[in-house]
Amino acid sequence: MRNTEHSRSQPAARSPAHYTVWQWLQTIYNLGVKEFNSLGRDVALLVLIVFMFSGAIYSNAKAKPDALNKAAIAVVDEDRSQLSHRLLDALHEPYFLPPRLISRAEIDSGMDAGQDTFVLNIPAGFQRDIEAGRQPGIQLNVDATRQSQALVGAAYIQTILGEEIQRHLSRSSLTPQAVPVHLVQHSLFNPNLYSAWFGGITGLINNITLLSIILTGAALIREREHGTIEHLLVMPVTPMQIMLSKVWSMGMVVLVGAFFALQMMIRGVIGAQLTGSATLFMLGAFVYLFATTSIGIYMGTLARTMPQFGLMAILLLLPLQILSGSITPRESMPELVQWIMSATPTLHFVSYAQAVLLRGATFAMIWSDFVIMLAIGLVFFIFAHRRLCRTMGSMG
Fold first, then answer.
1. Which residue in 269, 264, 291 sits closest to 352, CA to CA?
2. Is residue 234 in a domain?
3. Do 29 and 88 lie in a common domain?
4. Number of domains the chain contains
């Protein structure tokens, strides 16, 4: 009788299924916390993470601009006419520094000393020949050793001078034929064509890819090098739990760093005016990290040491970044390369990120890239899980 009463006074026991699921998730959480502790003791990786989401983003945006900015230019004005003065006034900041007037004899010495990137020589009688319907030439000397400015500077100068000459002839009614159509260009999403906006977003995408693969792969190799993989083999944990713990912990580190870089570096320091939703971008980044962290775990099962993993990462990351569409548009690649890269999550994430951040696309417009990234992530996750099971089975 007392046994019966005692049993009735006991609280209802938790169902085995509920208890198993809760313990399974708690194990994943505890293993993920262990990864945070292990990462906190790795100073080199911490410094790398901070730099990749701060200094590297800024450097990628500002180091190699494809737009002309305060280029040094000198002018030899042998015409001294109203038109030549208008041409000099058209060469102004932010594209050029104030033009420096020099003589013909100073052209070579100025360029040899590195004082001038461009030297414009306006010949005598230039305005007279233009108004008479002739086609006089203007000499432009370019210092090609300054590659970032020389590549685009000549095109800038040609466009500016052509517009000023056309405007002068139109105002003086001396054009031989009236132009029936005027082309007016409107640049959407980035009206001033600031290359830093594109460079910052490209750097953010590339760094998300690099760090997510390196951190998860290094986390798995660290288990082997420190001998803790043997501890995991004798514990009641499964390869799925080990894998999910590394995916969520390292993915969380990269996700927090990406959010910081987007808000503080790209929007704050670089000053990019992004019209898209940061929440939608982070949602896509979360799905993308699911795929890249799985790739990192798969590579971690193949490599035995960190040097081996580093060599493998170089061979993988270079094509992922160069052929992702962030540097060269996908349509400009050979069809075979397009077909191969369509099986990687990077190509779709670049399209997704540019559409959301720069063009302000909604989820209804880019849901296909989201679904494709999720499908590719599931495939890589399955491959990585099978490889991890075989690796741990051979060790056990």
1. 291
2. yes
3. no
4. 2
